[in-house]
Specification:
single chain, about 240 residues, mainly alpha, two-stranded parallel sheet, two-stranded antiparallel sheet, 10 helices, 4 strands, about 50% helix, extended
């Protein structure tokens, strides 16, 4: 059954999520306890057995990543040990546990070591990584979805409308200050909720990409055929024969 669809990011994401796949790691034929990510294999030569130093990086996007990066910088500047054997406190780190935004810093340091001090700031902290990751993800979804849709004898073209709302760039200065002052918690005063709703609605209505989407849908210039469950089942059955 062919149907004319209102296509938006959510619809694209939900449809494409059924096409997602991941590589399966081959099982290890032999396990060697002397290799891999173990303390004895990754520790610096100056790492002391007398000190167990563990870091825990919390989440919070680039804010968390920047704070964690500053911690690593200070540990690298801090010398410890007797004068004849002085070394960086950073070299004494045995373990880093991290979640969410903090994992960017932890993973980069685990993979590249001291390269983090020359690369991380320009490559991540001061780069609009969120937009790049989003666009890269959407481009991949479009490719995978189009490939699957072609196997269903449907149209291969998929139009993506990326509607980005950056509330820290609100045109109204009072709205911007108000938004940035609202705490992140699960209970807010009714008046605060109402103002947030009003700000969000106004920003969405004034977004150029959103208006392009609405215009295309109203003009009927973006017909998309979504396969029904029955058609998907029939395609899967044909492919299995």
């Amino acid at each position: 059954m062919a149907m004319r669809s209102s296509i938006a990011f959510l619809a694209v994401a939900l449809f494409a999520s059924g096409c997602a796949h991941y590589p399966i790691n081959a099982p290890l034929a032999v396990m060697d306890g002397r290799t891999g990510y173990r303390f004895e294999n990754t520790a610096f030569s100056t790492n002391s057995d007398a000190l167990l130093l563990m870091l825990a990086f919390s989440g919070g996007g680039t804010r968390a990543a920047a704070l964690d990066y500053g911690v690593l910088e200070e540990l690298a500047r801090t010398g410890v040990g007797p004068p004849s054997e002085q070394h960086r406190l950073l070299d004494e780190v045995d373990l880093i546990s991290s979640v969410s935004g903090g994992s960017f810093t932890a993973a980069y340091y685990a993979l590249w070591g001291d390269r983090i001090f020359s690369d991380f700031e320009p490559q991540f902290l001061k780069k609009r990584v969120q937009n790049e990751l989003f666009r890269e993800t959407m481009a991949r979804l479009a490719r995978e979805t189009s490939a699957v849709r072609l196997t269903m004898n449907g149209p291969g073209e998929l139009t993506i409308y990326t509607v980005e709302l950056h509330f820290n760039q609100l045109a109204d200065d009072s709205d911007r200050r108000f938004f940035n002052s609202v705490p992140t918690r699960l209970q807010l005063p009714s008046a605060t909720v109402d103002r947030l709703r009003s700000i969000a609605a106004a920003e969405l209505a004034g977004n150029d990409e959103f208006q392009r989407l609405i215009g295309d849908l109203r003009n009927g210039s973006n017909p998309v055929n979504f396969a029904t469950g029955q058609e998907i089942g029939q395609t899967a059955e044909r492919n299995s024969q």
